[in-house]
Amino acid sequence: MTSITRFALPLGIAITAAACGGSEAPTKQFAESQSAVRAASEVGAERNPQAALHLKMARDQIEKAQALNREGEHAAAKQLLKQAEVDAELALTLTRAEQAQRDEEQAEQQLQSLSQ
Amino acid sequence: MAGALSATAWACGSSAPTQELVDARRAYERAQVSPATEYTPDELLTARQALDRAEAAHEDDPGSNTEAHLAYLAARKAQLAAARGEMAQAKASEAKAKATYQAQLEKTATSSQDQLAKTRSQLEEAREATSSAEAARQTAEQRAAAALQSLSQVAMVKEEQRGMVITLSGSVLFPSGGATLSPIARQSLDQVAEALKQQARETPLIIEGHTDSRGSDATNERLSQERAQAVASYLATRGVDASRIQVVGRGEEQPIASNDTTDGRASNRRVEIVVGSRSSEPATSFGAVNKAAPGGAAAKTLPTEPQQPMQQQRMQQPQQQQQQRMQQPQQQQQQGAQPPAP
Questions:
Q1: CB–CB contact B94 A104 (8 Å)
Q2: Which of A14, B78, B290, B319 is the most exposed place for a label (fewest CB within 10 A)?
């Protein structure tokens, strides 16, 4: 049910846009960007300042892309969605990298506790 | 949003690079000095290719929207490469630390086990040493007891309060009035020496000379001292540790038989070797062995035997009576024998 509503809107935009813009709406790119944003959010990107910044950039660009889509600017929308996707991907990676560094510190502390 | 704005701003065909391209170049430079070089070179290559595309777009159409877009992507790819390099490095370090931690734990456990095993084997060795020392001690005691027992062929052996007493007849050892050992005496003393050497090394030996009542006290004391000394010296030459030996001249003070008869006086002329008091265990075995002796000895004796007073004296020490044994053949021949006790 949710997936239908999620795709109903961009699909509608795409059809409308295709009618007047001359190119297809970036439906696939839209889905990928949103998926990337969701994945970053799930690993806790909001709690890492740098990751949170890129996550916000991704969301803003998706929002902007939706607006461009409505205006029939499909090519520009697609570019923004691609940019949103890499921002979301970066947000996720930064979050995971920070976690990896925390894990490493913990392992080092455990090791040091042995020699004390 | 930023990309779209920039693209619009730089769309007028300036040859200057877009801000996105400037950012992308800087991001790539940072990625090049990040752990990505070592840990995620593929990611760095992808970032390089993205930057190349942006640079190409810049060459093709400087400040274009496409340049800005590709540069934006290139900047993020470079940042991604750096972040993934750092992540890979952190994970590698974590794995190394954990492996080292595990190895040290195992090492500690192993050394603890080694220590435990070592302690156990030391304990076991100590137990074995204790039991073998105990066995050796018992063997030595048995050998010492057997050695003294074997003397019953040449001397009388009995246990008294002061220790095991080996009594050697003076008439066998010495000529009358002299202190020079006879050849037969030497043979007997050789056996005594062997038996004494079997005793524990620290066992003290007291060699006492005794005489009968003939002659002056002074003479007798001197003679008894000289005889005891002669025995001691001879034993020392046969390997008995001289430092164990104490020599005493008792003179005529301690007769074991009547001085009124020739045989009684013969019994009183004697040398006694007192072997320092030992544990009661060997004494028990002596008792057992010597129980069989009196019958055999008695059977050989004749009615005029002068040993009566000596036996009476022994009666005062009932336990020792069983252990007494008078078997010196020469002595029996000289003294004759006594009838069996009624």
A1: yes
A2: B319
